[in-house]
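Review this chain:
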Amino acid sequence: MIETAQCLCLASRRAARAITRRFDQALRPHGIRATQFTLLAALALKGPQSIGTLAEFIGADRTTLTRNLAVAEERALVRIGSAEDGRERIASITARGRQTLRRAFPAWRETQSALTGAIGTGTADSLRQLSRQPSVRSSSREVTT
């Protein structure tokens, strides 16, 4: 069982929490968290998006994204409306959201640079590459004994 101390799942979750804490700390003076910054940046880059498309783009499940959007909507950072056919909900960034994103961007950039320096460019590039990989799926082969 000693090899479980080297568990990739545990290590990646710890690293993700540490990185998120650093971004949250830097963005706190701007009244947002890292999840909200990511949401605002995605909408600023991509324009209005359906919840499903946005969830796929940022790598979040729809339930988590819906909760994050509700918080951002309460704060007037995003607007949620219906698509023309009424079947999809569409998220878009508001003027207040753009202003918040613009003000928070220097803090995000400084944190991004500091973290990249701390872990090294190669590690940062590997992390980005890993995040773009398709999900690892279980083999559908049956195991027989």
Observations:
- The chain has six helices and three strands.
- Strands lie at 49-50, 78-82, 89-93.
